[in-house]
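Protein record
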Amino acid sequence: METIVLDIGETLVRDDRHWASWADWLGVPPHTLGALVGAAVAQGREATDALRILRPDMDVEEAYRARAAAGRGEHLDESDLYQDVRPALAELRAAGIRVVVAGNGTVRAGELLRALDLPADLVVTSGEWGVRKPEPEFFARVTEVAGAAPEATLYVGDHPADDLFPAAAAGLRTAHLRRGPYGHWWAEHPDVVETADFRIDALTELVGLVASASSSSSSSSASAASGVAPEAEGETGVRRGVLRSVRQVY
């Protein structure tokens, strides 16, 4: 493994401030919006569908601009990072791994992330690239900036339909992170288990995972080193392929 590319939302950055700010803007209790986000996640829908449930006629992009104009736009500081972010990224770079942060986000989000001076070689958002996940063009750009062959590049993210499946389709190796609503809810789905090269609970596992994968002579031994065990189809009570069909990505 030569390069590790990381998603942003619920991989590096906690989304609770994001949703709390939307709840405040819409004048609803944060737990109400949080529950609706959870319902959208469980149905395999976009989390932003929760906003449209509260305001069916709302244009989310237009509302975002209105919030910014009112001085209530995006904010990001050290407290928004998960605690394992800095130590994990620093260890990876110390181990000679190229670290790239590339995920969905606005141009402003990219500016805020770079202002945090993360231990990363590159920080970029979909807004800056002009293409969002899960579009294949996004992962083509990931491959370009990785500086390594796809099979030597690992994409890490929590969202199966936006991170895991399209990254795998692009030929990248993948790690599914059990973090955030999507990461936890879909972690044991057969599509996730089958597709992910690795499944992790914290970013600090990446250093050991990379070392194990590099010394492994087969994908099965790499999976064993990461703690991935084969699971029988139907064990989780869901039909294989359901997750993909819900989002209709692949």
